[in-house]
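Exercise: predict the fold of this chain.
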Amino acid sequence: MSALFNQFSYIWIGLSMALGLLAALRWRQVRWRTALAAAGALAAALSLGWLVLRPGDSDIGELQAAESTLSNGRPTFLEFFSNYCVGCIAARPVVDALVNDIQDRFNILRVDIHTELGRALRRRYGFSYSPEFVLFDAAGQEVWRSNKPPSADQIALAAP
């Protein structure tokens, strides 16, 4: 159950906010039409925010290509994300900056956990909660894993 909330937290929080706003306005005896309009405006703002901020699509489409990338002799940064996860959406700017800094030295795999590839890699690498970040060394061995982006010291573990 907690994984379901984690992976779809943006939707759950958005619905809770809209219902909470609706209840608060009705408690203050605001007319139904006005309360529904306010809740609708909040839902529209949340939808627009999701469209702008969501992490996007996976960088790679097939398991064989992902496995080939992990074994090509370069260290790899693997990100598991969900487009409906508040933590993933919040981490996006930090992760984008990190990827920009390390992309010359690392393979970058950003995987949507709700795709066929995402489900296969989740099973293979023992995924827990999104976002989840994994660093592999040049030999393809996992050297670090966390639910927050790696620091410079942690990146050095994979690419000394």
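Check your answer against the key: The chain has a mean pLDDT of 86.
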